[in-house]
Amino acid sequence: MKDQRSDDCCPVPNADSDLRPVEGDEADQELAMLAKAIAHPARVRILRVLVRRTTCVCGDIVDELPLAQSTVSQHLKVLKEAGLIRGEVDGPRVCYCVEPRALRRLRALAAGI
Q: Which among 35, 66, 92, 112 could bridge 22 via Cys, Cβ 3.0 to 4.6 Å?
């Protein structure tokens, strides 16, 4: 797996806090959507792999998981659609990194239970 720092893919995390409420109907819907996105052990593992790196992961995340490439791609798609990761095309490959604000939001929503 290759790492690469790209401000397009992985912006430097800022300390801005998300001031949206962590309770109420909208927050409950948001938490349910994010929880569904991480409701598979492979997706949790992908997030852990990406969080541990300070760079984009370009190349084969499949090396980190005992799953077929097509299965890993599907899990990445779910995480990306939920906004938990971002993926940027870099030639013939896609570079992935976590979306720090989304992870902070998930933590805040879960802590509000």
A: 112
DSSP the chain: -EEE--TTTSPPP------S-SSSHHHHHHHHHHHHHT-SHHHHHHHHHHHT-SSEEES-GGGGSSS-HHHHHHHHHHHHHTTSEEEEEETTEEEEEE-HHHHHHHHHHHHT-
CATH of domain 19-111: 1.10.10.10
Q: What is the pTM of this model?
A: 0.81
- What is the residue extent of each domain of the chain? 19-111
Q: Does the pLDDT value for residue 34 go beyond 80?
A: yes
